[in-house]
Amino acid sequence: MHNDDKLIDFGSERDKRIHDLHDKRLDEMRKAFEQALPLGKAKKSKGKGKPKKR
Question: CA-to-CA distance for 51 and 53, rounded, in angstroms?
Fold first, then answer.
């Protein structure tokens, strides 16, 4: 009396859940790094740095 359509593969479901948790943690870390060290998207010109030594 088992219906095969309703069987759940707990291994694959756990893998999906673990993957989602890792993605969430990665997004949190990425946001924290962006706040601490902004990438400077506004900079368009490399500007005048140190002169080259010849």
Answer: 6
> Rounded to two decimals, what is the model's pTM?
0.48
d(CA 13, CA 21): 13
Report how far residue 22's alpha carbon sits from residue 5's, in angstroms, rounded to the nearest whole number. Answer: 29
pLDDT in tens, 12-45: 999 999 999 999 999 999 999 999 987 766 555 5
* Furthest CA-CA distance within the chain: 85
Q: Taking the CB of residue 35, how many other CB atoms lie within 10 A of it?
A: 8
Give the span between the Cα atoms of 51 and 49, in whole angstroms.
Answer: 6
pLDDT category of residue 1 using cuts at 50, 70 and 90: very low
